Amino acid sequence: MSDSVRIWYVSGQRLCNFRCTYCVSINDYAKSNAADWPPEDQARFEKIVDWIADRPFRVGVRLATLGEPFASRPFLSKAAQLSTRPNTDFVELVTNGSLLKRRLEQLDREGDISRISLWVTYHPTEIPLQRFIANARFAQERYGCFVVVNGLLFPDNEQQIVDLKQAAEDAGLRFNLDLGYDPLTPHGVHTELQAMVPILREREEDGVARAVRLGVHPELLDLNMAAMRDLRGQLCSAGHNYFYIGIRGDVYRCSRYQALDKDRIGNVLDDGFDLQLSREPWTACGAGFGCGNKEDYLHLRRRGPVDGPLPPSLGWVDRDPPAAAARTRRGDDPGALAHVVSAEPSGRTEETR
Ligand code: SF4
């Protein structure tokens, strides 16, 4: 058993205040602009979080949603509760950033906000850049949250990405750029990366060069493309120090195994469920191809050695804090950062399409 296990749990929380045209939460798992979640989904969520909180090992959790987590006070209450557990290293929330100034106070009041990590994705049609950056900065500087500002690259938004990167740098915020996905791509089949990723649909080399020039991490892009195309002979630590939990509580080695319904480990909600993770740090991947979510493919051994403590995120890989984060303090108090990182798109799953 690894010292600390990372968990990616996609919950059924649905309410969202944005209407992005490319949203990956569609069909049976669509977000809603009107309602949060049916009572049975909320009850399931609460039980699953309680189960995570009771693990006899340290956990770092990306607590993902179909909607906007800060639109749901019941969701935030449970996230806050998880953040206070002694075995919780961090709770990462994937957010559009619009409600941070209003709702972070709840996490501070009910939880341990020093363990809250925020993956804040910019949706330029829904929020002005200035307000978006101010909110992310507020989370980092007022509360000491670990904050990553994230952009999604599509063929027609280059200038918006350039502006976002500059604004993030000016504000001392971590900046990440992911490839935007087409939410209508068929799932669970051998999907070509070019079909899934609009930026790669023209000449792939051009799309790759453009993505890297604008800020996509080159080694991770290479890893992403290789993991999509061919996993034969690849070793992976998923199922050992990382696993995936779906909306209904099903546990799989990773989200790709869930999409393929391959080797389900069990269900958190079943009486007597006994989680058995692999004792071997590296085991062969049996998916064949199609590992397209960063939360998953970062566990491939071909990524190379990862020394020292990991950042409190399932999407961020750099160890160095941004310049401003290193000097910002909660409440302007020149004390220590809540998240001093010595040191990893809310991805698409069967349940977020
Ligand atoms: S390589 Fe990807 S699909 Fe294969 S086990 Fe690892 S995370 Fe899962």
TrEMBL record:
Report the residue ranges that make up the Radical SAM core domain in this protein: 13-133
Alphabetically sorted, this entry's keywords are: Iron, Iron-sulfur, Metal-binding, S-adenosyl-L-methionine
Region span, Disordered: 309-353
- Output the CDD domains linked to this UniProt entry: Radical_SAM
Q: Which InterPro entries match?
A: Aldolase_TIM, rSAM, rSAM_sf, Sulphatase_maturase_rSAM
**Pfam families in the record, alphabetically?**
Radical_SAM (PF04055)
User: What PANTHER family does the record point to?
Assistant: ANAEROBIC SULFATASE-MATURATING ENZYME HOMOLOG ASLB-RELATED (PTHR43273)
Q: What family does the database annotate? A: Belongs to the radical SAM superfamily. Anaerobic sulfatase-maturating enzyme family.
What is this protein's record name? Radical SAM core domain-containing protein
